[in-house]
Amino acid sequence: MNLSRFIALRIYRNSEPGKQVSRPAVLIAMVGIALGLAVMIIAVSVIVGFKSEVRDKIVGFSAHIQIGNLDAARSYETRPVVVGDSMMAALSDYPEVEHVQRYSTKLGIIKTADAFQGMVLKGVGQEYDSTFFHRHLLEGEFPQFSDSVSSNRVVISKSLASKLQLKLGDKIDTYFIQDDVRARRLKIVGIYQTNFSEYDNLFLITDLCLVNRLNNWEPGQVSGVELEIRDYDKLEETTYEIAADADGNPDRYGAEYCVRNVEQLNPQIFVWLGILDVNIWVILILMIGVAGFTMVSGLLIIIIERTSMIGVLKSLGANNFTIRKVFLWFSVFLIGKGMFWGNMIGLAFYFVQRWSGLFKLDPETYYMATVPVSFNIWLFLLLNAGALLASLLMLLGPSFLITRIHPATSIRYE
């Protein structure tokens, strides 16, 4: 065994009265490391979880990539493009594309006896992936909607239902203004709640056929097509690949296709989510600084306490580098124990919150009812490696104090 590591291990394990290292110094160092690492794990888990939850809700409403009409402004009152079976098959052939689905939208108003509310009626077909809405469905069902037959059924959000005092099974009067006012009576067959108010207060889901008829569109015309991809990290790459083939190409009515991904369609939200990364770095730097400061303080106390031992080792021929390694190895043992408890605290918080949702949030403000958490093994390992490396680097400076200790002077303290 390496001499420096052997001596450090003996000091660390020594339990004889009067020969133990100062317990307050050791305790302060370990608590600092444990709390610092625990806070870093919790902060990263919560912020990554929050970003993932918000992103998944946006994607749930609008998929990863949309192909629509180039002339359409960023509005829910879209202009049509033709999306036929051949185009659907061609889009499905892209390696990163997992699912393809058509959609149409129509701006309208819900009117009850006491109130009215603006909304967007979104029509979907039988190929629509309803996994997202099934996950957030509170009452009723999410029907198998059609692109050829209108059932006059609709799925509405809980927030809209509460505002308008509606319940499952109620029939609602909706009005749509184009060249004239058109009315439709729709039956509520499902109520969902995502807590993402920007969309919950807006979208009603119904048949693709109904929305296309309200828009007076020709057969095959829709607002666009939504694409779900396999790997979000390849969003930009996949968007540009599809755009290179589709952008600017006209359909049979002369409308040109335009490809945009979810981040391009919602730039404000994703810029806001990107700012959260700055918060992570601020927390990491502060926590590493706090943990490092406690370790430096502890090491200085231990070096001063072991001055006589340093003098003896030097008188026996040990050089400064060897003795410095003794205290650095001792620090590694302390850091390791502190990191162990820090990991336990951080992981305990993750599992408790994941399974019980113990810590609640105001969904009107934070878009979710409980504190979201996410666990990434690579981020977890990187945090541990970074905390260990940063702590050791901060201890290199204080360890030079050993070079200032002279054997003749230090042994007198024995």
TrEMBL record:
Regions crossing the membrane: 21-50, 280-305, 326-353, 373-396
Keyword Membrane included in the entry's annotation: yes
Residue span, ABC3 transporter permease C-terminal domain: 282-407
Keywords assigned: Cell membrane, Membrane, Transmembrane, Transmembrane helix
Any one annotated GO CC term: plasma membrane protein complex
Matching InterPro entries: ABC3_permease_C, Lipoprotein-release_system, MacB_PCD
GO biological process terms on file: lipoprotein localization to outer membrane
Predominant location category: membrane
Name of the featured protein: ABC transporter permease
Species: Bacteroides muris (ex Afrizal et al. 2022)
